[in-house]
Amino acid sequence: MHTIKTIRLTKNIKGNLVLDDINLFFQSSIVYGLIGENGSGKTMLFRILSGLVKPSSGCIMMDDGVAYEKGSPLKKIGVVIENASLYPEFTGFKNLMYLAGINHVIGKTEVIDTIRRVGLDPDDKRTIRKYSLGMKQRIAIAQAIMEKPDFLFLDEPTNALDHNGVALIRKVIKEEAARGALVIIASHSSEDIDELCQKKYYISDGKITDSEGVI
């Protein structure tokens, strides 16, 4: 089982308290939902959990070990956050092969299987620049899940998808949780949250509450 525990996690940017004393516990095989308006702090929480941004203070434990030593996460993480950084002049397949070459834990077969899993064609010769918004969202999900991460953080995972795409990506998210990944999603879609999430947290002005208004 995989776990995350945040202890008094705080992020302050130029005097603006973006995250305020966040104390949370997550465990695998449960899909967690994070609900909040733009600017509420949910994306910043994802950035910190995934190691893209350092917290101002506080501690993150992953699997009962300190996740941050000098600001670097130590675990296998898959993440989709706004404006995924893919190379627009590469095809989807070439993007994922390039990323797979960083950790060397998967190869061509796994990349092809993952692209198909999100409903795209691995032989598509179009570059990312020519993808529709929905295709870009699918390839972003593919890069997050292709190495079977222990922790999966998905910000607006069904953004820009049509009805069939939404159904497919929801299925993929459920499969990832069933595989044993610890999954946290943030979404404006109440349908996503209601269908996918067994536990919901609400974030406003950098503070977290649960469905009963307390933490």
Q: What features would you describe in this structure?
A:
The protein is α/β, with parallel strands linked by helices and about 220 residues long. The protein has one domain (about 5-210): P-loop containing nucleotide triphosphate hydrolases (Rossmann fold). It has 6 helices and 10 strands, in the order E-E-E-H-E-E-E-H-H-H-E-H-E-H-E-E. The protein has helices at about 40-50, 90-105, 110-115, 135-145, 165-180, 190-195, and strands at about 5-15, 15-25, 30-35, 55-60, 65, 75-80, 150-155, 180-185, 200-205, 205-210. The strands form 2 sheets. A 6-stranded mixed sheet has the order 6-7-8-3-9-10, sandwiched between helices. Strands 2-1-4-5 form a 4-stranded antiparallel sheet, with helices on one face. Helix 2 packs across helix 3 and helix 3 (about 110-115) crosses helix 4 (about 135-145). The protein is globular and about 50 Å long. The mean pLDDT is about 90.
- Strands of the widest sheet, in order across it, are 6-7-8-3-9-10
Can you name the CATH architecture? 3-Layer(aba) Sandwich
Number of strands: 10
- The low-confidence parts are none
How much beta, percentage-wise? 25-35%
Question: In the CATH scheme, what's the topology name?
Answer: Rossmann fold
Tell me the name of the CATH homologous superfamily. P-loop containing nucleotide triphosphate hydrolases
Helix content: 25-40%
What is the overall pLDDT average?
92
Distance between the termini: 23 Å
Per CATH, the class reads Alpha Beta
Largest sheet, strands/sense/barrel: 6 strands, mixed
Number of domains: 1
Shape: globular
Number of helices: 6
Q: What would you report as the Rg, rounded to the nearest angstrom?
A: 17 Å
Order of helices and strands: EEEHEEEHHHEHEHEE
Estimated structural class: alpha/beta
